[in-house]
Amino acid sequence: MRALFIVNPQATSTTPRARHVITGAIARNVELDVAHTEYRCHALELAADAASAGYELVISLGGDGTVNEVVNGLLATPAGLSRPAFAALPGGSANVFIRALGLPGDPVEAAGAVLEALREGRQRTIGLGRISSDQDDRYFTFCAGFGWDAAVVHEVERVRQNGRRASPTLYAAMAAKLFLRGDVRDSSLRVEVPGHSPVRDLYLALVTNTTPWTYAGSVPVQPTPRSDFRLGLDGFALTQLRPTTTARLVLRMLSPRGIPPRGRGYVSWHDQESMTIHSDHPRAFQIDGEYLGHRERVNFHSIPKALRIIG
Length: 311
Known about the structure:
Layout: E1 2-7, H1 16-27, E2 31-36, H2 42-48, E3 57-62, H3 64-74, E4 85-90, H4 96-100, H5 107-120, E5 123-132, E6 137-140, E7 143-147, H6 148-160, H7 168-181, E8 189-192, E9 199-202, E10 204-208, E11 214-216, E12 219-221, E13 233-238, H8 243-253, E14 266-272, E15 274-287, E16 290-310
Parallel strand pairs: 1-2, 1-3, 3-4
Antiparallel strand pairs: 5-6, 5-16, 7-10, 7-15, 8-9, 8-15, 10-13, 11-12, 13-14, 15-16
Family: Belongs to the diacylglycerol/lipid kinase family.
Cofactor: Mg(2+)
Protein name: Diacylglycerol kinase family enzyme
């Protein structure tokens, strides 16, 4: 089997020694070529060309941003060519997608699990989410969000450019800062789901393709605990932003069961084929923990059985 190993050398949680060990282990099991990403969207370009180059498997080492790029590249495989299977190894600060698949958070251990699955011929097919707008047409693996969460992602990316390292503590600090400063007290969002009445005056709106939505260190954060790669999309939105209500909901998100389908201060949707989020004015928007810019309307679609996964 020919495999392409796409490595983000800037990945925050791996070392050159670990990358060397992982590369050696993989190369003993497949015919391997290694490519290091050099700029934003480079992983997307490499993955998009993988089928044409004759690769049957693409492996990535990086964070959720690298995963998102590789997945979008693979979904751009030219018609008539067999899309390579995908295996993702953790190299970022959160690695939400990889951990949601049930793989170890340690990259060396995750590589071992992927190689074991490869030797045993184990693979699975998962669904993805897809967004479309006047500026976008791309896939996401685990979440997309308007409002507070996207503003936090934007702020974290901004301070990372000044040398700060991403961490759960940094994300939590930014979330608290924006909340206390009042920057997120903007109820301009509206969610429309076919077969349901529109819901207006929302402060935050999330669309998920699996659970958890993210991690607080080792703790899964679950606003949509029924979300699953094998189902359609789930949605969650805040109808209130009072300090006591918000604190209560955050604690529920951190609990093993997550937030129930119905309750005070929020609304949720489960297993939907599509939904649309509108804003009265441009708001911060993110997919898979990557800030995309400000948007006023985004359409979301569930794409079943979109990708073959090893591991």
